[in-house]
Design a protein that fits this description.
Layout (H helix, E strand, L loop, with lengths): L3 H7 L3 E2 L10 E2 L1 H20 L3 E2 L5 E3 H6 L2 H4 L8 E4 L2 E5 L4 H8 L11 E10 L15 E11 L4 H19 L5 E6 L10 H14 L5 E5 L8 E7 L5 E10 L1 H5 L4 E2 L5 E2 L2 E6 L4 H11 L13 E5 L5 H13 L4 E3 L5 H10 L4 E5 L1 H6 L1 E6 L8 E2 H13 L10
Parallel strand pairs: 3-7, 9-10, 16-17, 16-18
Antiparallel strand pairs: 1-2, 4-6, 5-6, 7-8, 8-15, 9-11, 11-12, 12-15, 13-14, 18-19, 19-20
Helix pairs in contact: 1-9, 6-7
The structure holds zinc ion (ZN).
């Protein structure tokens, strides 16, 4: 069975070292390169959709999380507070919303600014029990693709539909195949904040936004502050988890006393939409490693092109080609150690999408012979054409290896 922990080790994507701590994996250069490409893509997608990115610290004063309700409703999932002095306690944040509420509150806001979309790929922490931790799928240090969209009430429907569109676009580019949409509602025996009328209104808004979408209802799966739309995935072992989420919150704007000035000069409370297009980088990659069996689409493959000189005489042209590929924005390497066959097998084991063989004839003619990781071999072509071919697939974030695929 495909297991992202085994592939993660074999492909040197990440390592879990007991000395660092369970649930605290370290991303190795190959994993970090793939993650970096995905992060850049998501940030760009958000920027083009009107999001504004911020940076905020992964820990904050205890009072911030008392105000947000996290210490009242969510303390069991949080690390215990760290005490510097009697009146100075800090907690590792379990969510980014409190900081983003402070971004909204940093100055007066006008209705003209809404929806105000504050995004961050930020760190947060969960005190998961060590028994449930494994690889990247359940971790204690989480890097979340997060945003908080502050809206007027009558903007919420359009905003949620637009978020659903962005989620579909991101899933298509990454190769995520959702297993289902879920409307997560309140259930008995759990702690929830806020009044019934606000919950009912939020549920109605989410149901309306799901018009035309196949979804199931899941009582008891709501956040403590509001109902949500969850998009589920199933991993190779058949376990279901949430990858994307859209949550409505009438409570935090109240708690943080957020307001904006409306067209008529009156002060109004915004509605807060918490959303994540692709979830945490950890859970996303646990899933992507398995769904692609380690062979990521070329645009986020850790190494996109490996150059193999046939013998010593072509090392220099191969190194030169790597430099040209890097200058064109590609991730490329040269491999000189061992027989050509062994090096071709090595590149296949590492799931490198393109292998460029440079023999005496190619070197003399300024050409390269490309082999694709699905086994296809292309006729020798000028170096510029090969780089153009790969560059086009990468820039188009295509799932195939040739732009015609
Ligand atoms: Zn949030």
């Amino acid at each position: 069975m495909i297991d992202h922990r085994r592939l993660g080790r074999e492909l040197e994507l990440f390592v879990s070292d007991p000395l660092a701590g369970a649930g605290l994996p370290i991303w190795l250069p190959a994993g970090a390169a793939a993650r970096h490409a995905v992060e850049e893509y998501v940030r760009d997608l958000e920027r083009r959709a009107g999001y504004r990115h911020v940076y905020s610290p992964p820990l904050g004063k205890r009072e911030l999380f008392e105000l947000s309700g996290h210490l009242g409703y969510f303390a069991d999932d949080m690390f215990p507070p760290m005490r510097l002095s009697a009146d100075d306690e800090f907690v590792l944040r379990p969510a980014l919303c409190p900081h983003h509420a402070l971004v909204f509150r940093a100055r007066g806001r006008s209705y003209r600014e809404l929806p105000l979309r504050i995004a961050e790929l930020g760190g947060m922490y969960r005190a998961e029990r060590s028994g449930v931790l494994g690889g990247l799928s359940r971790v204690r240090a989480i890097s979340l693709n997060d945003a908080h969209n502050f809206c007027a009430l009558d903007q919420v429907g359009d905003e949620v539909r637009e978020i659903l569109r962005l989620i579909r676009e991101a899933h298509a580019a990454l190769g995520v195949r959702p297993a289902g949409f879920r409307l997560s509602l309140r259930g008995p025996g759990e702690k929830y904040v806020g009044d019934d009328a606000a919950w009912a209104r939020a549920e109605d808004l989410l149901r309306a936004a799901l018009d035309g979408v196949d979804f199931t209802e899941a009582p008891g799966e709501a956040a403590f502050y509001g109902p949500k739309i969850d998009i589920q995935i199933v991993d190779a072992a058949g376990r279901e988890s949430t990858i994307s989420t859209i949550q409505l919150d009438f409570d935090k704007p109240e708690k943080f006393d957020l307001s904006y000035t409306d067209a008529d000069g009156s002060r109004r409370r915004p509605v807060l939409v918490h959303r994540s297009l692709v979830g945490s980088m950890e859970r996303l990659f646990a899933y992507l490693i398995e769904v692609h069996a380690g062979a990521f689409p070329a645009w986020y493959a850790p190494v996109q092109l490996v150059l193999l000189p046939v013998d010593q005489g072509q090392v220099e042209p191969a190194v030169d080609l790597v430099r040209r590929a890097e200058a064109a924005g590609l991730r490329a390497e040269v491999d000189v150690a061992g027989s050509l066959g062994a090096r071709i097998r090595g590149a296949a084991r590492r799931r490198v999408p393109y292998v460029g063989v440079v023999g005496p004839r190619e070197a003399a003619g300024g050409a390269v012979s490309l082999r694709l990781c699905d086994g296809r071999a292309l006729a020798p072509m000028p170096v510029a054409d090969a780089l153009g071919l790969i560059g086009k697939v990468v820039a188009g974030r295509s799932a195939g290896l040739l732009s015609a695929d």
